[in-house]
Structure prediction request, 268 residues.
Amino acid sequence: MFGNIILSVLYLFIAIIYITLFHYPKKMIAKSARILVLLSIILHLSFILYLTFTEGRLALATVFEVLSMLALFMTILLISIEIKTGEKSLGAFIFPLVFCLQVISVLGKRIPVLDESITHMPLLGLHTLTTVVGYTCFIYSFILALMYLNLLKRFENKKFDSIFFGMPPLDLLDKLNMIAMNTGFFFLSFGLISGGWLSLLIWNEIPFFDPKIFLTICLWFIYFVSLIIRSLLKLRGRTMSYASIVGFILIALIIILESLTQATLHRF
Prediction:
């Protein structure tokens, strides 16, 4: 708990630095942000590895552990994008959400809701890990979509302010969004396949109409259709951004369904 509180404070500090960097792009601020991000990744990985080795399971047995892992993966993906593209404005939009995810994970219950025989199954780790990576990419896709639509609106209204010049070009946002959607779809597909196998082992059936499982399949189908339509009709930008937003709404519903209700027997 203490370590996760430290991480939450660190992520809040990083968010403030990136917001400052967005409005005042100085090399000193950018360098400080990079150092703190790398530090947060090391600390976060250390805490997860400690929990994994002490409890003998991957730290993904509860929705709150999943939220913490989402925060870590979003941070790792951000630093990867920065190194690849040199673009440093994304952090101002990513880290406020990373901070919120980490805070919620700290406040939530961390008591595993699964039988120990299930939490120690390697297949559970594969299922949850691939699904969380998929969710991470879709959350990035959502943020990139909002940035794209905001920048496009400013361009159409000829509103060339500091926010307009601070954001990445439309083409880069669209390209990153498509990479995020394709990668997320790939990992979620593996998550669904391994999840189906796991369901057969635990319940001897796949409960397709369980609310969480049904919504996850709907999420996969939305991205599947969106990617096929883009490929066939060469759609870009605005249309794909709307698909990303719909997908994120479904992810939010899935997380809320699991954390706040007892409507699903899918407790992992």
In short: The longest helix spans residues 122-156.
